[in-house]
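Board notes (copied after class):
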Amino acid sequence: MSRDAGAEGLRERSGADRLTAVLRPVRAGNGFEEALEQILQVVRLGLVPAGGRLPAERELAERLGISRVTLREVLRVLQDQGLVEARRGRYGGTFVLSRPDAGGEDELRRRIAEVDIEDVLRFREVLEVGAAGLCAAHGLAEERAARLRRALERTYEVPPAEYRRADTLLHLTLAELCGSPSLTARYAAVRATVNDLLDCIPLLVRNLEHSQRQHTALVEAVLDGDADGAREMMREHCAGTAALLRGFLA
């Protein structure tokens, strides 16, 4: 082995050691979102500097506990955002790109500077999990159940550009149906803040499809009167959104 090759290997092992604090196996429910969050942290924290190479796909997939297919979808999102690039050949791999301090970055910082993201996400989870559990435990009369079904159907009918509005209406409908006007009012306020944060990140097709599956399971649990299942699905759903927001904004 040449001296240069040995030095390169040493640098890569040292970099891999630094990643141990960030990269860990993700939970099965939100594998794509949590893997994206962790790799975004690696990039934004500078654990792999601009021009540096991320670990090989096989190593990353093993560290995160996800398939290489899912990992490639994550890396594709990072490429689309201009954060990494894939290079072919003997010395290829996925390399971190430098990020110029553009006006968009400045605007992003201004929009979230006064928002306590963790507080917003935790309060949102408490309200949403509570609303889902109440709806399932108390049951919904046929007219109210039909409202919930229709709100879910709309999320499947709208084009991607209108998805977040339909998603918001579904969650607001669930809050309204829980029978607590106070909870509904507080949820509407926190959801407005969540939407401001969501507007700062890209709409990802993989996440949209995953959210839709969770929405369907959530509504089914509510209509079946499965309070524990409804709470758990809502908790998982909120965790997926939280992972994306932390990854892009924290």
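Comment from the instructor: Residues 155 and 162 are 9 Å apart (CA to CA). Residues 1-15 have pLDDT under 50 and may be disordered.
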